[in-house]
Amino acid sequence: MAATLIGSPVAQEDPISSLVRSDRLRARALAHHDGRLAVESLELAASVNGRVFAPGGKLADIGYAKRHAEAVALAGQDAALRARIQQLPDVERGAAAGPLRLASSRPYWQQPLTFKGGELAAVYVKASSASPITLKVEAEGRTQCTARRASGRALCRWRPRATGEAIITISGARGMSFELFTN
């Protein structure tokens, strides 16, 4: 959460940004066998579970059950970490909506998605492996965002002026699997 001054409103992080932070913490937790980071990642995931969507408006499966099991395993016998985990939901609320796959015949995937005007719009793509990926969003007659990442994860955020379609294009290696999340 963002720090605020006394008397100022608390700024809520959008669900996509929280999911990105959760994924980063999770990767570090698994790489370093760190229970504290795993629980922090799970807490963020719990805050967005059921609030992140896949193409077509379905709830996205963020892998909450797997994240929960990883946090429990990495917490080990640490009573404080286990107590934090006990405060969180232990069931999956999202419905599976992927993974999607780039066709072997072309190295990109493209689909129009509708976003609400005046509200922060966010698209997050996560490849199944750490391979180069490009996420491009076109709306309102122009490119709103282009994110090129070698890590296999890319995030685009913008604020549409009016409710309407945005063309989402994901480019990468032919046949690459990926998950797409929106708010």
Written overview of the protein:
By secondary structure, this protein is an alpha+beta fold. The protein has two domains: 15-86, no CATH class; 100-182, Jelly Rolls (Sandwich). Helices cover 28% and strands 28% of the residues. It contains four helices and eight strands, in the order H-H-H-H-E-E-E-E-E-E-E-E. It has helices spanning 15-32, 35-48, 64-75, 79-86, and strands at residues 100-101, 108-115, 121-127, 133-139, 142-149, 153-158, 164-171, 177-182. It has a four-stranded antiparallel beta sheet with strand order 1-8-3-6, covered by helices on one side. It has a four-stranded antiparallel beta sheet with strand order 2-7-4-5, with no helix packed on it. Strand 4 and strand 5 form a beta hairpin. Helix 2 packs antiparallel against helix 3. The protein is globular, with a radius of gyration of 17 Å. The two termini are 18 Å apart. The model is unreliable at 1-11 and 91-98 (pLDDT under 50).
